[in-house]
Specification:
Length: 245
């Protein structure tokens, strides 16, 4: 895509995003959808004031949502590859590929770690394989919101769990644990301070062993919801048929 085409595409996306915001209160704002009836225009003075105020309120919201929209396009592009692979291979095929991937990790750590480490990574790999299978099931069998609520979180856990468990036992992966601790401190101090939730978590859990695993499960699940929501936003603003999907 040329630079001019890229800029034009960005303008179209921003306009659609703002029109979608306007349509929350006013009818027929997305002109691409309502070509026959045309775009609704306010007629009374009260409607015009409300229309302009709502439009002005939408400007900063669009500015905040647009980076998430770009993330949604990128995630959707890669999620479509997973959907295509699942459609070709079926749920069983997707499970087998994940089993090969994390089974390979388990075999690799067998050369470096003792029995306890291999057992832990193997157990995490089994959970990851089951999560990948459930992600494929919910993606294929469920609707949009089932995919967002269950498919994406299970997929994120299938990605995160085995490497985190391996890092608990392999000194060469200690950087993962250091970053986990830094991330935990940031989240506790800046996100989970509401209702003294950070105090409860500090008193109840320690960031070692199973605590690290639980932390990453707690991160992967809402991260899956976030990615599912931004993909839904991408589908709303630029349907797959409009970008070659």
């Amino acid at each position: 895509m040329t630079e001019g085409g890229l800029v034009e595409g960005m303008k179209v996306d921003v306009v659609r995003l703002h029109e979608t915001w306007m349509e929350l209160l006013f009818p027929r704002q997305r002109t691409a959808v309502h070509r026959v009836l045309g775009k609704w225009k306010p007629r009374t003075r009260t409607d015009r004031v409300a229309y302009r105020v709502w439009g002005a309120l939408g400007a900063p919201i669009v500015a905040l949502l647009y980076p998430l929209l770009l993330v949604g396009f990128a995630v959707r592009f890669n999620a479509r590859r997973f959907d295509d692979a699942t459609a070709r291979l079926g749920v069983v095929g997707a499970v087998l590929i994940t089993a090969l991937l994390w089974g390979g990790l388990t075999a690799l750590v067998r050369l470096r770690l003792g029995f306890d480490g291999v057992l832990a990574v193997g157990a995490a790999s089994v959970v990851a394989v089951l999560s990948a299978g459930l992600a494929a099931v919910f993606t294929r069998a469920g609707g949009r919101w089932t995919t967002v609520a269950f498919g994406y979180p299970f997929a994120m856990n299938a990605v995160f769990l085995p490497p985190v468990v391996a890092a608990l036992y392999d000194p060469s992966l200690s950087g993962v644990l250091e970053r986990s601790e830094a991330l935990a401190i940031f989240l506790l101090n800046n996100v989970l301070f509401v209702y003294d939730l950070n105090g409860y978590l500090r008193a109840t859990f320690s960031l070692e062993g199973i605590g690290v695993v639980l932390m990453w499960i707690a991160i992967a699940t809402p991260l899956g919801w976030l990615l599912g929501c931004v993909v839904t936003l991408a589908d709303l603003i630029r349907p797959r048929s409009s970008d070659g999907g």
